[in-house]
């Protein structure tokens, strides 16, 4: 089946099987390997991308369902020769160990940033909102610190 | 130095851009895809396999069963071989019998993974069911079903420690505790599951294998030996590893299988473990029952210990054997003076997935037992649990201290750290406050656990003595390139912890270069020197770092000699400062490292006898283990439904010198998260017939951001005398004391009389749900 995705800003028309998952289209067909697959069952969030500005699980979405949608992966959220503020915060606050969960968290944080109401959240709310992605390495403190630096900047 | 002032980890800079390269990201031309058909039976005879229909499907390139593998390959190697250990000729595919659900039965290689899966569904296997046994206790019974007919029972191996007159000590004791403490089976669950890609390598008439592993040289040895190839024809690459935690420290049959298929097909073949599969195909950890009795005198001084560590080894004795039980046995005395002891450690086979390493490796299991028992003793003596520890901990003045099982406690200030932690936590005030809360009807409480962690795994003689078939040294090569920057080749394999950044920093410090001038190369048997044991046992910075320092100092020595020659000076009058060698009295008489490197490689004017180039290596074998230690304190509240809410944790520890405090912090907090999972809810369960009940991340709870309590860290740095940088390991510290500290706090919360939650088993949720 023919689908058109607006992928990281560019319209891409692809011929895909109706059962093909978005994560496989991205990774296997288009070689966009920043999107990781940790469980294939919607639990770990490593595959999180932005679908029309909203974080979504690329392992649960079928590519044909995304026809006409804007899909953004970490490749698209990465400036050519610098780091985004969120990426910088991740490096600085010890939010990265093995890096496998990192793309998922960056997508979630970018979604929250665009949605724009995180500025007033307390610690518990922020942690709850970040609890859609699993990290097995860091224990989360660094990730929460980085998210706070991005979403609740102190002037 | 706070975390934000440290130079960024180069790997982190790649990872945040999505530029990590894990095995599943490696693409090769003409790559084929593998799927492994696994046994649905826990114990059965393999009576017949019909692969005809599957093999004839379009797109299927290769179909292999156990009969072929048994003939064409040698058994998987044994890494830990204790005296008297029983053998099994385990191969990468089962033949004649399956012994656990998930055991590989057939390999299918096809043009796509989808075709391979479809083909697998058309393979018909006839299983002749046999009775299964899943628990270690049941497998020990004389009438238990037996897994290996040529063994007299199900015991893989055992080890004993017997010191002093234990019976007399128990007879004269004022207080005795007796308990059975169970740590259930759990998954290491690195977020990146395992993955293997093997490709023919025409240039070496051999193979290259990419695998998500902690031990590339061990994989090379295994693939070579199983395929009966010489080791120099096999190259193993561990690219970025998406977490490991011990799960990836052993060699696996899938590495042999992909290598076999790639060689046979002359094409690259890859296998990506899926998450469901990982619950039965990757080694889980824990699954130990510790039976422990302590004898104290009237003053609360420990007189003797009787302990038994029983490991459920799962279906196969290979890989790390009963290593975690052995380690548990050796670590039972912990940081305490124990005049007499009788300890037995053993492992038995059962019809479950073979167990292997998981962060802590036997230490959290025995810590849970010992620290629970200490609390019970303190309650019986009606003294503060911290005071009972204080009376029995080894004193600073006694270090290095040889513990009763032979372990050398190298250095540490146990009492000082304990007191510091109690003060920072506000222990006395918290005890009073929670007691008040309890009289008001809120079940809250505090608990603590002291731990030691055996790190800097090594001493080759120790490895040899206990049957580990791998040297305990690490090799590092430091090569100053002609342009003056440095390539470091390490035997260590980063798996997310950042050891490469610590090594870069040590190298930059030794050679007085900016850290940007150092690149660390790792995880490739073709470029990095042989290191048998690689990354595991919390040895990366300690042992790998010591090897690096040794090699860098040789480079430094050569720089000084060369500069002396070029400056026409005496080497003793020269200093290495800020990237150059200069005369101590006249800094204008100076040659930069770049100048010296060029001179070394041009080799036109070298001192007599000096070799050209600037490239040194060192094999460092640790003289002893480094024993890190610390104490975890926590406060909990018990909800009406018995769910444990951890209000806060204070973690005080000492891992010697901290090379990168940010990495240390990351290891501790990440370890605490896994400790929390161990303590509260992570468990892999089996039905009595051997059917796994946990095969999905939906059924296996791990902590998410909202599940973590506030954590406060307290650091003390007592350098180890046995390592040039004074650093010990810290990879497992975080996980070790958390189960005991939480269980002790819950016991305190229940001390007003209502003991509704059983506390002899972690995860504690087990006491809530009951049953196996
Ligand atoms: S891979 Fe999609 S949620 Fe885990
Ligand atoms: S950094 Fe490894 S899973 Fe998060």
What attributes characterize this protein structure?
heterodimer; A: 155 residues; alpha+beta; Ubiquitin-like (UB roll); DNA polymerase, domain 1; 2 domains; five-stranded mixed β-sheet; B: 772 residues; Aldehyde Oxidoreductase, domain 3; Aldehyde Oxidoreductase, domain 4; 3 domains; seven-stranded mixed β-sheet; six-stranded mixed β-sheet; 21 helices; 29% helix; globular; binds FE2/S2 (inorganic) cluster
What is the oligomer described by this structure? heterodimer
Please identify which CATH superfamily of the largest domain in chain B we are dealing with. Aldehyde oxidase/xanthine dehydrogenase, molybdopterin binding domain
Number of helices of chain A: 6
> CATH homologous superfamily of the largest domain in chain A?
Beta-grasp domain
Q: Can you offer a commentary on this structure?
A:
- The complex is a heterodimer of chains A (155) and B (772).
- Chain A has a 5-stranded mixed beta sheet with strand order 2-1-5-3-4.
- With 155 residues, chain A is α+β, with helices and mostly antiparallel strands.
- Chain A has 2 domains: 2-74, Ubiquitin-like (UB roll) (Roll), CATH 3.10.20; 85-151, [2Fe-2S]-binding domain (DNA polymerase, domain 1), CATH 1.10.150.120.
- Chain A is 34% helix and 15% strand.
- In chain A, helix 4 runs parallel beside helix 6 (141-151).
- Chain B has 772 residues and is of the alpha+beta class.
- Chain B has 3 domains: 11-130 and 194-272, Aldehyde oxidase/xanthine dehydrogenase, a/b hammerhead (Aldehyde Oxidoreductase, domain 3, Alpha-Beta Complex), CATH 3.90.1170; 285-458 and 623-769, 2-Layer Sandwich (Aldehyde Oxidoreductase, domain 4); 473-620, Aldehyde Oxidoreductase, domain 4 (2-Layer Sandwich).
- Helices cover 29% and strands 25% of the residues of chain B.
- The mean pLDDT of chain B is 95.
- The chains are: A alpha+beta (155), B alpha+beta (772).
- At the A-B interface, helix 3, helix 4, helix 5 and helix 6 of A face helix 1 and helix 19 of B.
- The complex binds FE2/S2 (inorganic) cluster (2 copies).
């Amino acid at each position: 089946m023919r689908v058109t995705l607006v992928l990281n800003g560019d319209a891409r028309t692809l011929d895909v099987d109706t059962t093909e998952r978005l994560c496989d289209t991205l990774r296997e067909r288009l070689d966009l390997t920043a999107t990781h697959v940790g469980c294939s069952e919607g639990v770990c969030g490593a595959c999180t991308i932005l679908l029309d500005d909203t974080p979504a699980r690329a392992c649960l979405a079928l590519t044909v369902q995304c026809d006409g949608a804007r899909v953004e992966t970490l490749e698209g959220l990465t400036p050519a020769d610098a780091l985004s503020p969120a990426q910088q915060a991740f490096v600085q606050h010890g939010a990265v160990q093995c890096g496998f969960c990192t793309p998922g968290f960056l997508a979630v944080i970018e979604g929250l940033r665009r949605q724009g109401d995180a500025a007033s959240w307390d610690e518990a709310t922020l942690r709850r909102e970040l609890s859609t992605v699993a990290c097995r390495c860091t224990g989360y403190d660094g990730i929460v610190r980085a998210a706070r630096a991005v979403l609740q900047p102190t002037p | 130095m706070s975390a934000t002032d440290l130079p960024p980890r180069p790997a982190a800079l790649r990872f945040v851009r999505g530029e990590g390269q894990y095995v599943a990201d490696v693409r090769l031309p003409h790559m084929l895809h593998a799927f492994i058909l696994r046994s649905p039976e826990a114990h059965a005879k393999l009576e017949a396999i019909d692969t005809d229909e599957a093999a004839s499907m379009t797109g299927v390139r290769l179909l292999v069963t156990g009969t072929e593998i048994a003939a064409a390959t040698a058994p998987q190697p044994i890494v830990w071989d204790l005296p008297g250990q029983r053998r099994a000729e385990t191969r990468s595919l089962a033949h004649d019998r399956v012994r656990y659900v998930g055991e590989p039965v057939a390999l299918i290689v096809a043009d796509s993974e989808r075709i391979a899966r479809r083909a697998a569904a058309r393979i018909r296997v006839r299983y002749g069911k046999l009775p299964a046994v899943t628990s270690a206790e049941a497998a020990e019974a004389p009438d238990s079903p037996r897994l290996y007919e040529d063994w007299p029972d199900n015991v893989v191996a055992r080890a004993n420690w017997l010191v002093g007159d234990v019976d007399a000590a128990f007879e004269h004791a004022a207080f005795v505790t007796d308990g059975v403490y169970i740590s259930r089976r759990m998954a290491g669950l690195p977020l990146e599951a395992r993955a293997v890609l093997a490709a023919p390598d025409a240039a070496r008439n051999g193979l290259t294998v990419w695998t998500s592993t902690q031990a590339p040289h061990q994989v090379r040895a295994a693939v070579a030996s199983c395929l009966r190839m010489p080791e120099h024809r096999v190259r193993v690459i561990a690219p970025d590893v998406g977490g490991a935690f011990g799960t990836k420290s052993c060699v696996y049959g899938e590495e042999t299988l992909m290598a076999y298929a790639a060689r046979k097909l002359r094409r690259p073949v890859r296998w990506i473990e899926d998450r469901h599969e990982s619950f039965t195909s990757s080694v889980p950890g824990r699954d130990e029952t510790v039976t422990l009795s302590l004898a104290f005198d009237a003053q609360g001084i420990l007189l003797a210990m009787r302990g038994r560590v029983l490991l459920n080894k799962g279906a196969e004795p290979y890989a790390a054997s009963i290593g975690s039980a052995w380690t548990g046995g050796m670590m039972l005395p912990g940081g305490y003076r124990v005049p007499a002891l009788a300890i037995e450690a053993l492992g038995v086979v059962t019809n479950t997935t073979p167990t292997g390493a998981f962060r802590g490796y036997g230490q959290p299991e025995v810590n849970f037992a010992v620290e629970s028992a200490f609390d019970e003793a303190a309650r019986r003596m009606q003294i503060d649990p911290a005071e009972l520890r204080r009376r029995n901990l080894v004193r600073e003045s006694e270090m290095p201290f040889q513990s009763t099982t032979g372990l050398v406690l190298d250095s540490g200030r146990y009492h000082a750290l304990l007191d510091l932690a109690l003060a920072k936590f506000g222990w006395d005030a918290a005890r009073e406050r929670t007691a008040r809360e309890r009289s008001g009807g809120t079940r809250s409480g505090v608990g603590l656990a002291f731990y030691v962690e055996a790190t800097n795994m090594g001493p080759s003689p120790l490895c040899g003595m206990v049957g580990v078939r791998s040297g305990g040294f690490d090799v590092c090569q430091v090569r100053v390139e002609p342009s003056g920057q440095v390539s470091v080749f390490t035997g260590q394999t980063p798996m997310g912890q950042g050891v490469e950044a610590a090594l870069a920093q040590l190298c930059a410090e030794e050679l007085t270069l900016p850290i940007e001038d150092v690149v660390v190369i790792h995880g490739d048997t073709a470029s990095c020197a042989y290191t048998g044991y690689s990354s595991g046992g919390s040895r990366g910075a300690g042992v790998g770092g010591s090897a690096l320092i040794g090699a860098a100092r040789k480079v430094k020595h050569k720089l000084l000699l060369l500069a002396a020659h070029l400056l026409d000076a005496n080497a003793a009058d020269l200093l290495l400062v800020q990237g150059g060698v200069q005369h101590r009295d006249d800094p204008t008489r100076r040659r930069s490292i770049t100048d010296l490197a060029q001179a070394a490689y041009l080799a036109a004017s070298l001192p007599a006898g000096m070799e050209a180039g600037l490239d040194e290596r060192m094999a460092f074998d640790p003289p002893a283990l480094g024993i890190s230690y610390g104490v975890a304190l926590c406060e909990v509240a018990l909800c009406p439904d018995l769910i444990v809410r951890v209000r806060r944790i204070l973690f005080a520890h000492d891992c010697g010198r901290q090379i990168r405090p940010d990495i240390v912090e990351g290891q501790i907090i990440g370890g605490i998260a896994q400790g929390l999972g161990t303590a509260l809810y992570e468990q892999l369960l089996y039905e009595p017939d051997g059917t796994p009940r946990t095969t999905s991340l939906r059924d296996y709870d791990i902590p998410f951001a909202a599940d973590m309590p506030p954590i406060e860290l307290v650091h003390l740095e007592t350098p180890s005398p046995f390592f040039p940088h004074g650093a010990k390991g810290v990879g497992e510290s975080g996980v070790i004391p958390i189960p005991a500290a939480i269980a002790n706090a819950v016991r305190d919360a229940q001390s007003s009389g209502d003991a509704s939650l059983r506390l002899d088993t972690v995860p504690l949720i087990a006491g809530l749900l009951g049953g196996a």
